[in-house]
Structure formats: structure tokens, C-alpha cells
Amino acid sequence: MTDPVADTIRRIVVLRANGLGDFLFATPALRALARYFSSAEITYLCLPWLRPFIAGRYPYLHRVLTVPPYPGIRQVEGDPAVAAREREEFFAASQAYGYDLAIQMHGGGVESNPFVRRLGARHTLGLAGRGVAPLEHHLRYEFYQSEVMRYLELVARIGVPPAGVEMDAPELPDDEVRLRTAWADAGRGPYAVIHPGASDPRRRWPIERFAAVADHLWRFHGLPGVVTGSLAERPMASQLQRLAAAPLHNLSGWLDLGAVLALVRRARLVVSNDTGVAHLAHAAGVPSVVIYWCGNLITAAPFTRARYRPVLSWTVDCPRCGARRCRCPVSFVAEAPLREVLDQIDDLLSAAPDRAW
What we know:
Layout: E1 11-15, H1 20-36, E2 41-46, H2 51-54, E3 63-66, H3 80-97, E4 101-104, H4 112-117, E5 123-128, E6 137-140, H5 147-156, H6 173-182, E7 192-195, H7 207-221, E8 225-227, H8 234-243, E9 248-250, H9 257-265, E10 269-273, H10 276-284, E11 288-293, H11 294-300, E12 308-313, H12 338-350
Parallel strand pairs: 1-2, 1-4, 2-3, 4-5, 5-6, 7-8, 7-10, 8-9, 10-11, 11-12
């Protein structure tokens, strides 16, 4: 299948069951895939919490299904026997459906390649880390590569040409309605979105720095801050409110992802850790200042700088245990300079409007 005949592929399934940013990174490749296999139906496999955002929003994803509990992909909760039965029923239904092509866009393949094989597709394509048994067609997984380019390179292995590198985040009419339901003042004046959370504590900038950002935005630019986050991050958002002197509206835990997109799209600026809200801002073309660990600049940062400004922490070894690679729940981005973040905010807010990609 090095030079596939597009009209022989009728049903495609893609596994990428991880976070919001991870999904957005894959949208250029998914768009290219749909354009090349124009007669094919594309099924996307994701985690349960992300399905409501994706389903019906992306015209090139015709079916959006939830992956079953599966070690290393979706956490197994509750009765293991029930999870095993759900898993077997899912694979039986997939095999009966008759996929022509199954694509693994879910990491290095340790757990995800066996998962994709069990889907029963005629052809398979995916990433493979060192020592991992590859699928029929594969690309070597190396961590230090732009995520957007990784998946474009992956689908190019079967002849799919790129259809742009921009990420997609289309807004639906109900998104703004739900935003205004949660925040009646939406649209009554300019604001900045501040996102102090991240699923990985190693990517969290100190909360007192975000408080200083909120005060700076208010004092020098007259911009009140709107704090976003999950329900679990609401205590962090409340702490930010206590630390900041500036007015802050706390929407943590009150918005679904579509409403978050509507909020971000209407903001003057987003200041965030390297997490889903930052990538929504990029996809929506909203000016943003994002704090990155230096290695993640390679994998996750936008390609352009007119609207998107990374501020880096050069911490390489764990501040707690000293190891080069570890899972200690300690920030690797605390050294990103506050002064540089404030300077980038000033520069973006003083710049003339520029058309984003």
C-alpha cells in the first residue's frame, strides 16, 4: 500500500484516545486523510469525555466512538470482568464492521499497536517506538518532533499529501449560547483568558506568577481576567482569585469544551500553560503567551510567532530527584521568567492586528 488506490479504501478508523491538544495536533493529518480518501468514511476513536466536543463538529470525522477500557489507553475502572466484556464486544463489533484501514496515532505503539491489530482492518498504519512491533506500514516514533508534522508524515507513508498545517477548531452556534448561560457578561467588554492548570503538574507554572499576570493585564491594559479550568482545577482557580488584586471571573468547572472554545475565540489574549486551552487559542487564531518546558517547544508549539509567543523553562533535570526522566509531581516550568511573560503580553497587545494562519 505504498501507493494506495484511494477508491479501494471505504472505511478508515483512527485511534487517538488522549487529550484535547493531542486531538487538535492531529486535525491537519485527519483533514488531509479525508481529502485524499474522499469516498471513505472515517471513524475516530477517542476517550469518553472528549467525544461530545468532537462529534458533529468536524465534517471529515463521520463517526466518533469511545474506546473501551484498555490498559495503557483508557483506565480500567470498576469491575475488571465488566471492562473485559466491554472490550471484547467492542473488538467483535469492529471486526464485523469491516474496516479497510486502521491508523494508530496514539504514541509509540506499546499498547496501541496491539489494540489496532484487534480492530481487524485489511491494512494498518501507525507509529512504532524502538523495540515495538510495527504495524503493516509504520513511522518511527521519536519524541522530539512537532506533533502536527508527526501525523502528516505518518499519513504520507501511504501517499496522503498534506492539506495545510493549520489546526481546526470550528465553532458551533450552541457554543456561544452555553457560554452566555454560564457567564452572562460574555461579550460586554474585552477580557483575557488565564489558564493556570495542566493535567501534568510538571507543566504548571507557579500560581503566584499567574496572579502577577492578572494584575499586570488589569493595571496596564485594562483587561479583566477570566480563569478557565476543569472542575478539579477549581480550587486552583480560587487560589488565583485570592492572590490577585485584579478582578478575575472564575469559570473553572462551569464550561464544556465547546463553550471554552467560544470564550477563547472572543478573548483579546490567552495566557496559559502548555495544555488544551493554549492549543485551542492557536487553532482559533487568538494571540497567546504560553509557558513551555523546553522539550515541549519542539513537540507542541505553533510554527509562527506573530500571534503566538512561547516562554521557556530550560530545566532539564528534575528539581526534586535530579533525574533526567522521572514522574515526580513537581513543576519543570517554574523557571520560566515572569518578566519575559509580561514583556510578551505587552508586545502582543500593542501590535497591530495580524491575520493568523
